[in-house]
Design brief:
The structure is a single chain. This protein has 397 residues and is mainly beta. The chain has one domain (2-396): Beta Barrel (Porin). The chain has 1 helix and 19 strands. It has one helix spanning 2-26, and strands at residues 37-54, 65-66, 69-81, 86-99, 115-127, 132-143, 146-159, 164-177, 194-210, 213-226, 234-239, 246-251, 257-271, 276-287, 292-305, 308-319, 349-362, 368-380, 384-396. The strands form 2 sheets. Strands 1-3-4-5-6-7-8-9-10-13-14-15-16-17-18-19 form a 16-stranded antiparallel barrel. A two-stranded antiparallel sheet has the order 11-12. Strand 3 (69-81) and strand 4 form a beta hairpin. The longest helix is centred in the N-terminal third of the chain and has 25 residues, at 2-26.
Length: 397
Amino acid sequence: MAARTRGRRCILRLAVVLPIFVGMCGTAPGHADNDWKIEELLSRFAYFNQSGFGYQSQAGPGPKGSEDLHVWNPAFYLRARQNEKVEHTMVVPVDIITSASTDAIDVMTSASRTNETITFDITTRYEEPADDTMSFRYGFHLEEWYRSVFAGFGYARELAEDNATIAMNVNGYVDVFRPYGPFGGLQPPGDKRDTRGALNANLEVSQILSRTTLVKAGYGVTWQAGELITPWNSVPVGCNAEVTACLGRTQERFPNRRLRNAFSGLLAQHIPVTHSTLRLHYRFYFDDFDVRAHTMKVELYQYATPRAYIRASYRAHHQNSVYFWTRAIDLVDFDPTAPRTADSDLAEFWAHEVGGKLMIYVDPNASVHRVDVGFTRYWRTNDLIVDVVSLGYARLF
C-alpha cells in the first residue's frame, strides 16, 4: 500500500507542476532567432462516464459484472520551435480512474478502486530540405500496476509542388506489468512481472485533387508478442445455461502472438459557399485472431461566425468476435492451456457514436486564444454506454 501511495503522489505532483512550468515557459520572451519559442499551448479536461455489463468483470452482481468506469482526464499539449528546422511537441494526458470491474481484484486492500496514470509522449520533427520531414517519437507511461516505454521514427515527403504527401513511420513498445491472480483472488505474492512488446509500421499517402478536395489512404500493421491478456479480466466457469449463476472464475488466456492489419481512407470536401467541410472516413481491420471490423465515420464542420465553428460527427462500427471468445467455460470440456476470453471489447457487436464540438477563436493583440467544448455518446449492442464531456483551452503564439 505504501508503494502505491507514493506512486499516486508522484503522478499527482507531475499533473500539478507540469501546467505551471508550461505556463512559465509560454511567457518567456525570445531574444534571438535561434532561441526556443513556444508556439502553442493546450490544456483540456475530459470526463468519461461508462456504464454497462460484461462477462469479464468480477464486480457483480452476477456473472455478467459491472463495467462502470469513471475517468477524470486532464491533458496538456505543448508545441515549441527550437530553430527554423527543429520543432518539438509534447502530449501529457493524466488519467484518474475509478473502475468497478477491477474492484474485486484486491479484496483485502481495495487498491484498485482508484488508479492514476500519466503519459509523456514527445515528438521531435526535423525539416531538411523543405520538402522532407523526419520525426522521432519517444516517451513512457506510468501506472500503479503497469510501466511502458515507446519510441519511433517517421519520414514524410512533399511531392508535386506540395499537392501530394507520402508519410511512413515505425514504432516500438515495451510493457512491464504486475499480473493479478486467477479466480478473482489476491495479487500473487512476491514481485512477479509479465512483459509484452509490439512493433508498428504505417504508410499514408494524401493527394489534393482540387482547391476544395483532399483524399488520403493508409495502411498499418502491428505485431504483438508476450503476455497479451488484460490482467484483471476473468472468464466465468461452471455456469448454468443462462450464465446467471457460476461456480467460479478463471483468468483469461491469450495466444502469445498477434498480427493486426488496417486499411483506411479519407475524403475531405470543402464547400466555400456555405463555409462547410465534409469528411468521410472508412477503416477495414483484420487480424490472426479472426477479427474482421468495418468502421465508417462522417464529420461536418460548419462555421457559424468567422471566429466560431461547430463540428458534428457520427461513427458506426461492426466487428465479429475473436475465435476464442466465450460467455463461460464448461467444466467438462475445460482445457487450462486453451485460449479464452470473455472480454466484451473482443465480442461481436455493433457500435455507434455521435458527437459535437463548439470551437471559438479569440484574437487579442499579441496572440490567438481558442476555447472548445464537446460532448460524445458511444453505445453498442453488447450492453455498454460511454458519455464524454470535454473542455479545452489553447493559446497560439
